[in-house]
Amino acid sequence: MDGVTGASGRKQADEQGRPAVRRTGDGVKVLVTGAAGFLGGYIAEELIDRGYTVVGLDNLSKYRQPARGLPEHERFTSVVGDAADKDLLYELSEGCAHFIAGAALIGGVRYMKDLAYDILSTNNRLAGAAAEVGVSRHREGLRKVTYVSSSMVYERHPGVGFREGDERETAPPATAYGFQKLAVEYYARAAWSQYGLPYTIVRPFNCVGAGERHAPHTSTSSEEQQRLVRGHVIPDFVERALRRENPFRVLGDGRQFRTFTHARDLARGVVLAMESEAAWNEDFNLSGNQGCTISELARLVWDRVNPGVPFSIRHEPAFPDDVRVRRPDTRKAAEVLGFVADTPIEAMVDEVVAWVRETGLAAAA
After folding, report:
1. C-alpha torsion sign, points 348, 233, 161, 171
2. Helix 38-49 to helix 263-275 angle, to the nearest 10 degrees?
């Protein structure tokens, strides 16, 4: 379906209300790892809509199934396998012009705390395999690797308005996940420095959308702790609002500030970064500009689910590494890529509410 992307990067909508995209792929082949994950599925859809041919690799280790329905399209091939398997990556990347390295162990705050070693070890192997295969395939026609990093590289930034480059001027992240994502960026730059493999680094901020399921894992946490934070904050809040949990539990004092970004916007930003010649050997913060405190988010979610029902908050102890403010500077992505993420937070919440209701996750929690 052809469409137009304006200079601002915002997409017009077709008659059915679906965002239109400018077809730029012309069948060019792209390998995406982590393609069955939450954000990965949106990236695969965006690529297909733009005319690319996509090979999606995922081992289904987190959800045991695709987070969302995978695209059913003649230009999409789904492969179940380990993205740390260099022989498999090399095979699947044959003829690829681009490689989006998105495979990683990722989850909510409890997931990241409980699986700290596995996250560090597994994600390191994934990053190393992506860089090594990228180097080999670059000699054979692969143009670039686009690495999916994280906002967590700014975990210990002392201020607001994080700008690209600040992650190397502040203390390294305290969490295993944040530290390893910073290492991903070092892999990217080292592969360029030593072997001339071009890269682009993208840092998504607080991805929101339909499709995030509970991730079963072995945990040392109590059942109550796991129930308190089972996923990312918006689906977690939606589940508990649907159960009418009142008083509503919030970690910490509730004044932690976050921006939120729809997964479709993030997928568009990732693909724009992949495509852009100006993005070679650059890094980008990909984030919406809307934000709120965690207490304000709790109130918003409650009111969307239970309008007119009295509401109160009970504060629970925060995790030691909880970031107080996560608010990036997004001017570089706007100026270089024409990327602006403008989905309203209310629309994001409503979509997650519909998803949770449809899948029955709240009742099962």
Report:
1. negative
2. 60
Instruction: Please give the span between the terminal C-alpha atoms of the chain, in angstroms, as a whole number.
Output: 39
211-226 pLDDT tens trace:
776 655 544 444 444 4
Burial class (CB in 10 A: 0-12, 13-18, 19+), 329: middle
Query: Model-level pTM?
Result: 0.88
Beta bridge partners of 98: 30, 144
- Mean pLDDT per 10-residue section of the chain, whose length is 365 residues: 31 40 78 94 95 95 68 91 98 98 86 88 98 97 97 90 94 94 98 98 94 57 43 88 96 93 97 97 95 96 97 90 86 98 95 89 52
Architecture per CATH, 29-215+261-288 = 3-Layer(aba) Sandwich (3.40)
Looking at the DSSP bridge assignments, the partners of residue 77 are 55
Rounded to whole angstroms, how far apart are CA atoms 311 and 314? 10
Q: Which two tokens stand for residue 104?
A: 């990683």
> Which two three-digit tokens encode residue 222?
């109590």
The runs of H, that is alpha helices, within the chain are 38-49, 86-92, 109-114, 116-138, 176-195, 223-228, 233-242, 263-275, 294-305, 331-332, 345-359, 361-364
